[in-house]
């Protein structure tokens, strides 16, 4: 009940609470659960939500974190802050055809702040912020659930009353410990969902504040409605789902503030009932005005986002979302509904969790004889039953809770439903973070109905406690799996054994650790499961190239570029293989094709330079390496090769100039120090050469060649004792070092001759 007039004398809080509680049935009356003071309830929820995910605090950057954080130039100080508003979540320009169009500048801004405050890419700070955000959201859920389950009531002093303290505590605990939230909390890129949820809830609570009676006795505040719209816009700038809060605020206004019976309203509209004159009452209460504000705000936000996005929707591939590429409308509809049922199942039984559900993890349903149709039938049987109860029940309290539960379950999920536009995933646990609010409402209401009927309510309460405890343990286990890529990827093998991407990621992780034999096995399985998986072909081809299995590597890479002609990395790797097979013309053509598809490709220019060097086309080689360093000034290998080539061709002055230029850009690169020291030694600049050799050795003391070449310098310089010392160190580090043993023997003979003369 909303107060419509200002009372001269305010009754005490207990009387007010009692009077308001009588306006409708109290859900808490039937719930057998703990009753805690508000402060303690929030402390308990915060503590339990922290315990669920605390073990993820020192995890690594995993899966999408690499692209969204480590490789995202928008996090670095040299990128202007203004660029964040024109780039997508991954750091690409929104106007680019390859952009995913995921516009989340405020989330990227928090990543940037993490990076700057930590002084680099240290994951602990990123993880701690995610955990704090989830704890904060879980605590806010108590206030949100108290409104959704108990109604919006205020005391005469304008204080909001919690008419369902037990139910709101249970629902908040269910939300806090739900294992499906692990991806959002333990995966750093899940920050987008967490920030979106935070401002989503603040928008809702702000909208509720609009109905707190002010001093003038108005029934609602336009200011707080506008604040709610602004917070909804901020939520959308964290993640796209945030915009849906404006629709939910409108639903809440109609059902809770104005207590509209939807079925009755529909009947009156259909039969043109004269009692529709009550619409004037809605106008007087401001419902239509508030909905107009929400609609205008939402339309303005969407228009601005569309203008910034610049182009059409993102271009996804069939492996990302195979159902959306099906020719048959029937197949698309059946599979979309099957995906919905899987999302519902993850809420009900979050046991089988996977970091990625694409690439064959969920085979398409192509006929009605597929047994998985049962899941669709079960989903719609439950949904239709709930919708009927929400519309047709004579109990207004039941109608309100069920409608709000379904609203919070369905409306935030709509952007991920494929209904309005194609999405780039099949199932994604992160997108269920907000819809789980609706699940918690329905679960809590179902528990209250069971408690009402049950004779032994304590057994029912113990059962729910057991569910919460199991979820806490599942969260802790799943959080530990998100701590490293190896654990995360291997955990998916049992859940999605048909997912080619899972095998690819396991293989990539093994390859990064140097276990090439095991990596080959997983890459081959990825290609077997998805014969068009060009990235798996490329990585497998690379490993085979390094193992000198050149012909199979060439076959794989040729197939990859045939399937995806603009795959620049595969063209470059094909060129490397062709170069190794001494098919130089084909290799040159492959390199130029790679550069054609990726204009700024320093590694490809570097490899092209190596090809030209092998063909003694020195000018072309130097030009290619120079292009590599222009595109990537810290490309140490290209700088080194320029210095070495100029050195070998007798252009010592030019080699020295290039070496000094390189060291100005990369002052701590010991390999550049070594190369320049060699040039300076040949130019008889012994003192400067010695200083660079010693600096290089300090940075890398176990490099035999560094000691060997410094010994040669001392040998030329006449410092024979120091030469002998460094020859011996070099031979100790590498007894087979080329030329070192011969030079050492020459030095020893010279020392023996000097000793004889001295004797």
UniProtKB/TrEMBL annotation:
InterPro entries: O-mannosyl-transferase_TMTC, TMTC_DUF1736, TPR-like_helical_dom_sf, TPR_rpt. Its EC number is 2.4.1.109. SMART domains: TPR. The keyword Transport does not apply. TPR repeats lie at residues 500-533, 534-567, 602-635, 704-737. GO terms for cellular component: endoplasmic reticulum; membrane. Residues 312-384 form the DUF1736 domain. Pathway: Protein modification; protein glycosylation. It is a multi-pass membrane protein. Keywords: Endoplasmic reticulum, Membrane, Repeat, TPR repeat, Transferase, Transmembrane, Transmembrane helix. The chain crosses the membrane at residues 39-57, 131-151, 188-208, 220-237, 243-266, 287-306, 373-392, 404-425, 431-450, 459-477. Pfam families: TMTC_DUF1736, TPR_11, TPR_16. It is found in: Endoplasmic reticulum; Membrane. One of its GO terms (biological process) is endoplasmic reticulum unfolded protein response. GO terms for molecular function: dolichyl-phosphate-mannose-protein mannosyltransferase activity. Its main location: endoplasmic reticulum. It comes from the Eukaryota. PROSITE patterns: TPR (PS50005), TPR_REGION (PS50293). Belongs to the TMTC family. This is dolichyl-phosphate-mannose--protein mannosyltransferase.
């Amino acid at each position: 009940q909303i107060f419509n007039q200002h009372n001269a004398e305010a009754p005490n809080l207990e009387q007010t609470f009692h009077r308001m509680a009588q306006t409708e049935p109290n859900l808490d009356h039937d719930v057998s659960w703990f009753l805690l003071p508000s402060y303690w309830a929030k402390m308990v929820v915060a503590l339990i939500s922290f315990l669920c995910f605390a073990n993820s605090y020192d995890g690594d950057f995993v899966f999408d974190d690499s692209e969204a954080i480590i490789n995202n130039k928008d996090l670095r100080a040299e990128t202007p802050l203004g660029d964040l508003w024109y780039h997508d979540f991954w750091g690409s320009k929104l106007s680019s055809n390859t952009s995913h169009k995921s516009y989340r500048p405020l989330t990227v801004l928090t990543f940037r702040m993490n990076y700057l405050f930590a002084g680099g890419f240290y994951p602990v700070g990123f993880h701690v912020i995610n955990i704090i955000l989830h704890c904060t959201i879980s605590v806010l859920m108590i206030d949100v659930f108290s409104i959704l389950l108990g109604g919006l009531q205020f005391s005469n002093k304008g204080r909001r009353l919690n008419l369902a303290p037990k139910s709101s505590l249970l629902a908040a605990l269910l939300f806090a410990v739900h294992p499906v939230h692990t991806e959002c909390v333990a995966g750093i890129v899940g920050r987008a969902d967490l920030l979106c949820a935070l401002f989503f809830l603040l928008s809702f609570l702000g909208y509720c504040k609009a109905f707190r009676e002010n001093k003038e006795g108005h029934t609602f505040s336009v200011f707080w409605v506008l604040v709610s719209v602004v917070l909804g816009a901020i939520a959308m700038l964290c993640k796209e789902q945030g915009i849906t809060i404006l629709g939910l605020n409108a639903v809440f206004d109609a059902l809770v503030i104005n207590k509209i019976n939807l079925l009755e309203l529909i009947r009156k509209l259909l039969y043109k009932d004269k009692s529709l004159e009550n619409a004037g009452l809605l106008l007087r209460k401001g419902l239509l005005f508030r909905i107009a504000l929400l609609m205008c705000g939402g339309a303005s936000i969407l228009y601005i986002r569309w203008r910034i996005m610049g182009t059409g929707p993102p271009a996804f591939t069939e492996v990302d979302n195979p159902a959306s590429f099906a020719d048959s409308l029937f197949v698309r509809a059946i599979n979309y509904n099957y995906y919905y049922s899987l999302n519902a199942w993850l809420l009900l039984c979050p046991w089988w969790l996977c970091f990625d559900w694409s690439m064959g993890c969920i085979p398409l349903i192509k006929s009605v004889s597929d047994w998985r149709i049962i899941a669709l039938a079960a989903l719609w049987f439950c949904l239709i039953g709930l919708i009927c109860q929400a519309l047709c029940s004579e109990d207004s309290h039941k109608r309100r809770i069920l409608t709000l539960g379904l609203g919070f379950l369905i409306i935030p999920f709509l952007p991920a439903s494929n209904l309005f536009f194609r999405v780039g995933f099949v199932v994604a646990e992160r997108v269920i973070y907000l819809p789980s609010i609706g699940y918690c409402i329905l679960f809590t209401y179902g528990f209250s109905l069971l408690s009402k009927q049950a004779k032994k309510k304590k057994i029912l309460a113990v059962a729910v406690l057991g569910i919460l405890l199991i979820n806490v343990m599942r969260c802790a286990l799943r959080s530990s799996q998100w701590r490293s890529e190896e654990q995360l990827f291997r955990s998916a093998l049992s859940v999605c054994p048909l997912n080619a991407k899972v095998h690819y990621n396991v293989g990539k992780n093994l390859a990064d650790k140097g276990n090439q034999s095991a990596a080959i096995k997983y890459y081959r399985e990825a290609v077997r499961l998805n014969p068009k998986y060009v990235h798996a072909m490329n990585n497998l081809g690379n490993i085979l190239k390094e193992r000198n299995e050149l012909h199979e590597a060439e076959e794989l890479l040729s197939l990859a570029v045939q399937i995806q002609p603009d795959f620049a990395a595969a063209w470059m790797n094909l060129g490397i293989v062709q170069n190794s097979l001494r098919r130089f013309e084909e290799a040159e053509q492959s390199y130029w094709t790679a550069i054609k598809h990726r204009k700024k490709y320093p590694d490809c220019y570097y490899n092209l330079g190596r090809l030209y060097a092998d063909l003694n086309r020195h000018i072309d080689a130097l030009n290619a390496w120079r292009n590599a360093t222009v595109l990537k000034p810290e490309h140490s290998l290209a700088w080194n090769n320029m210095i070495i080539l100029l050195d070998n061709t007798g252009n010592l002055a030019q080699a020295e100039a290039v070496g000094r230029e390189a060291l100005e850009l990369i002052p701590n690169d010991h390999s550049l120090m070594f190369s320049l020291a060699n040039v300076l030694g040949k130019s008889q600049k012994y003192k400067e050469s010695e200083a660079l050799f010693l600096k290089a050795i300090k940075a890398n003391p176990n490099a035999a060649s560094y000691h060997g070449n410094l010994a040669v310098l001392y040998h030329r310089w006449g410092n024979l004792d120091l030469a002998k010392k460094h020859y011996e160190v070099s031979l100790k580090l590498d007894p087979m070092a080329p030329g070192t043993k011969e030079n050492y023997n020459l030095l020893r003979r010279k020392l023996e001759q000097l000793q004889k003369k001295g004797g």
